[in-house]
Structures are given as C-alpha cells and as structure tokens.
Amino acid sequence: MGAVQARMETVLQRLLPRSEIVPERLHRAMHYAVLGGGKRVRPLLAFAAGELADADPARVEIVAAAVEMIHAYSLVHDDMPCMDNDVLRRGRPTCHVEFDQATALLAGDALQPLAFQILTEHVVADDPGAQLEMLGILAVASGSRGMAGGQAIDLASVGKTLTLPELELMHIHKTGALIRAAAVLGARCGRGLDARQFGRLEHYAKTVGLAFQVVDDVLDCEASTATLGKTAGKDAAQEKPTYVSILGLTRARVLAGELRAQAHAALSTFGAKAARLRELADFIVLRKF
Predict the structure, then answer these.
(1) Is 120:135 a contact under the CB 8 Å cutoff?
(2) pLDDT tens sequence across 254-281
(3) What is the gyration radius of the CA atoms in the chain, in angstroms?
(4) Which helix H or strand E contains 29, and what residues bound it?
(5) Contact 12/34 with Cβ under 8 angstroms?
(6) Contact, 88 vs 130, CB < 8 A?
(7) What is the pLDDT of residues 212-225, one digit of tens each?
(8) Where exactly are the structural domains of the chain?
C-alpha cells in the first residue's frame, strides 16, 4: 500500500498543472485538493486489479490518477456549503475554507476534465477502441448514472427514512460507481481477463464499494474527528440516512463482514494473483479511519 500511495503522489504531482502557471491560485487549489492526503483506495484497487490482467503498471498509474482526480473533485464539491457544508477534510481545512468558494468550485470543475485529458494523452490500452470504452466507463461512473447521481439522491434523502434497498441503490451510485470503475479500468490496462472473469471482478468491486460505505457510516458514529480527519457525527447531525440509522451499529458491522466474505468469494477462482484484492477487502472492512 505504501509503495502505491507514494507512487501515486509522484504521478499526480506530475500530471497536475504546475502551481506557478497562470492561473496560479486555481492551480494551487487543485494541488491542495489532490495531494498530501487520503487513503488512495481507488488507485490501490486499480493496481491490484491490474495484477489480475498482467497490466503494465505505467498504464495503471494513468487510469488510477484519472479516477483519483474525479474523486478529489467530488470531495471538493461535496464539502461546499451548498452540499455537505464541511470545514475539515483529511485533517485540514476543506478547499473552500483554505481558498474560497469560487476557487474551490473552479478547482473541482478543472479536475474533472483533467481526468479525461490525461486518459486521451496517454496510451492505456493496445487498441484505440478499447481505450475509448475506458473513457466511457469513467464518464458513466462519474455522471448522473454514477457518482453525481448518487450525490443527488443523498441530498434529496436528508431527513427521510429510506429502506435498505433504497440506501444501497444510493451508495451503489455515490460511492460504489467510482470504486467499480477503478478496479475495471485497472484490469482493462492488461489483456488477461475474459468476460466471465470481468464479471467476477465487477461483483467484487460492487461488494467492497458497499462495504466501504457501511464502514464509513460506522466510523462516523464511533471514531473521533482527529482519527477520521473529517467531522465525526455529521451524518446524524444532518439527519442523513445511513446504514447505522437503518440497521443499528451491530447489524451494520455484521453487514460489512458479510460483504467482505462476498468479495473474497468473488475472487475464489483467481488464485494468487488476487492476493492484493483480497487484502484490500480486508483493509476496507477492518480499517479504523
């Protein structure tokens, strides 16, 4: 994990516009939003899935960077007063607090197209048609049928009581779509998987994406702000429906364990090549931050 995280810090630094280039303040805000923090779960999944398909790590780092830029932009926008109105992210002031709301909005706006720009400037697949499909995968995962749509459902659900299937649908979009894209794009940088194996990988990614959110909801109730690096207890304060509010802490923890088991089962035919993916499923469920 440490090696991939360090590598991605270098890659992201290289791919971002230099902060001394005009407009300097915007570029500094983009650096602030992307660099120097975060677990890099999505890049870790991309590299682990790439191992299944014997993918070139130099290709995987590009798709991982593209996914991480989309993720970073979403955090900048989600933290703004018009959405979650948070002042702390990764243990430091959120982007709109450190800079200002307009600059933060533009930083997110700029990071989104940059993700697609780097996917067009680098070869990440042997066939141009396959690379075009990869662009489409990231676009769908980011848009109204993916992450942005999930955030819209989330905002519309404040103060409401959702059923468990309704909550799962929200998080399949909001959190899960980009996690699935990271795994699929990492594997698509290689050539070693058939359609059935891709289906197993996608099922794995779906289960770990949901598990990630379940654990996030548990930690929001149990962990401190200092441990999380963001404001603890905010979901309950804002009356957001969560796995804990629907199931309670005990049942939410059980569900996370069940999803972890499903993730491992989805990888049962891959053998040693799936070791990193198995370890990441464990990390996502057992983490304390």
Answers:
(1) yes
(2) 999 999 999 999 999 999 999 999 999 9
(3) 18
(4) helix 24-34
(5) yes
(6) no
(7) 999 999 999 988 88
(8) 2-286
